[in-house]
Amino acid sequence: MSVFARLEPRLPSVSKPIQYVGGELNSTVKDWDCAPEGETVRWALMYPDAYEVGLPNQGVQILYEVLNERDWIVAERTYSVWPDMEKVMREGDEQGPIPQFTVDAHRPVRDFDVFGLSFSTELGYTNMLNALDLAGIPMHAVDRGDEDPIVLAGGHAAFNPEPIADFLDAAVLGDGEEVVLAISEVVREWKAEGRHGGRDELLRRLAVTGNIYVPKFYDVAYAEDGSIEAVVPNRPGIPFRVRKHTLMDLDAWPYPAKPLVPLAETVHERFSVEIFRGCTRGCRFCQAGMITRPVRERSIETIGNMVENGIRKSGFEEVGLLSLSSADHTEIAEVAKGLADRYEGSNVSLSLPSTRVDAFNISLANEFSRNGRRSGLTFAPEGGSERMRKVINKMVTEEDLIRTVATAYSHGWRQVKLYFMVGLPTETDEDVLQIADLARKVIQKGREVAGRNDIRCTVSIGGFVPKPHTPFQWAAQLDHETTDDRLKKLRDTVRDDKKYGRAIGFRYHDGKPGTIEGLLSRGDRRVGAVIEQVWRDGGRFDGWSEHFSYDRWADSAATALEGTGVDLAWYTTREREYDEVLPWDHLDSGLDKDWLWADWEDAIDPSSDVEVEDCRWTPCYDCGVCPTMDTDIQIGPTGRQLLPLSVV
Ligand code: SF4
């Protein structure tokens, strides 16, 4: 079944051929028939981007391992092929085109039972269509037969899969570890019974679990003004709302335990351990924080064991402690000290990818740099002015920020990066220009405390995109022209500053990709035609600036949405009303819609002084998640410590 013999002679003609070869340390190749009597369940897992971005993805690595640990499941990986490889595959050989293949055993993706895609960004949608086409799987779910795989989406972007609903058989909301096994069981049973009832019956069995969304079992009705009137199940037994899945015991699932070691250069080359999942800080723009509630910590012992095991199995020399805000782990000081003690004098270095200004402290930073380079520090105040930070519920005062950064400079750091967003609700030019002011004050203070002039502050700016399941899901997105205008004013202000301007780095992207991300994030099923049109016009790798074309998206939107009464602006720059049915209302993240609405109103009310605190340390404020999902916050402190490793 392997297509490698057909692929191999062509590899010298494509860029970075090593990415298509497979055989990475800790990868798995199993017999195609590893279970008796045709009961093997086979998954092709895809991160829909190039190998260099896709291989390090934690979600795919975890599911790959969880599935392959079962002796009746085969799981292999596939990534998006670069355009040069796509051309080679489409040209094919005497047997015809070379189909989308897995990198593990080079088996055609179409031969698997489930084709599972993990989306962390909506800009991967055209890559999904390309993979389906290359695989020879009918693009539209309605055209698929019993022999085609179930096309399944997961990841954060799957919390509103409506724009790709026509191309999907199913979507899963939330944590994947347990649900992929539950899906596999359903598929196994269906196969063992001789595929009774065909594809429709398999999808029905998945849908009735209440955890798996099957778009074709729901009808969408539109009102005359173009808004959605209702989304309702179209057959008996299908639930009105599909619930997200929450993994409650992270210690019982210590994955990845055998991290994949890439063959080609990738965006991250380190072993990452997720130290907790979820975040209840309540930043109003943050979809990841909202949809992953509540907070569930991994214990210090499990973190220690995972780090030790992961390093031993992979040979990586850098360990990243991952989460949405890692310094918030209740025992982060003990974790950092324990690991720094263990690996003192070795080649292993630790990193903490995300740090909140208010959770940073210098002893923590020192532990992390004890064994390695003193890398730059990154903080994300997100809003340039105090007023904006109040709107987004990220209450970091200017004083806090300057004090924190000054501490870092006075302890030898020379480089600090500050991350902001532009285009937030109620924002004015003045709010954005205050970013320059803040950077200036940071440099001024830094020079003062460090007693030297060679310190730098890099300001990095991203465009705000309103996301489903957040209090800002009703917000009007700023149009890209105004976004670019604000960014230009800010850049000019920094450049014109003779005294501090040269010490301030300025990084930003123009506003156009954000507009398209906005269309895809809050779109409904009608947007599927736009995505398909873009793909037919050659759209691929839309997350890469060199491949992204705004004009292609805008032209496709104009054509594909013609006659629907809605357009690109309707999806992006329009504020929504309370009673509008949102495309994802039938997908249950646990958040109470009325709580989200009240939080949205507090955000934009200039007279409101409501600050949503973190429910880890204050009483529950009824966001809805815990009672709806039957979950609870799981945090320490446990009072335990990491023991030194003894050599046997
Ligand atoms: S329900 Fe309460 S405790 Fe649970 S995440 Fe929401 S605010 Fe926090």
Automatic annotation (TrEMBL):
<protein>
    <submittedName>
        <fullName>Radical SAM family uncharacterized protein</fullName>
    </submittedName>
</protein>
<feature type="domain" description="Radical SAM core">
    <location>
        <begin position="265"/>
        <end position="507"/>
    </location>
</feature>
<dbReference type="GO" id="GO:0003824">
    <property type="term" value="F:catalytic activity"/>
</dbReference>
<dbReference type="InterPro" id="IPR023862">
    <property type="entry name" value="CHP03960_rSAM"/>
</dbReference>
<dbReference type="InterPro" id="IPR007197">
    <property type="entry name" value="rSAM"/>
</dbReference>
<dbReference type="Pfam" id="PF19864">
    <property type="entry name" value="Radical_SAM_N2"/>
</dbReference>
<dbReference type="GO" id="GO:0051536">
    <property type="term" value="F:iron-sulfur cluster binding"/>
</dbReference>
<dbReference type="InterPro" id="IPR058240">
    <property type="entry name" value="rSAM_sf"/>
</dbReference>
<dbReference type="InterPro" id="IPR023404">
    <property type="entry name" value="rSAM_horseshoe"/>
</dbReference>
<dbReference type="Pfam" id="PF04055">
    <property type="entry name" value="Radical_SAM"/>
</dbReference>
<dbReference type="InterPro" id="IPR045784">
    <property type="entry name" value="Radical_SAM_N2"/>
</dbReference>
<dbReference type="InterPro" id="IPR006638">
    <property type="entry name" value="Elp3/MiaA/NifB-like_rSAM"/>
</dbReference>
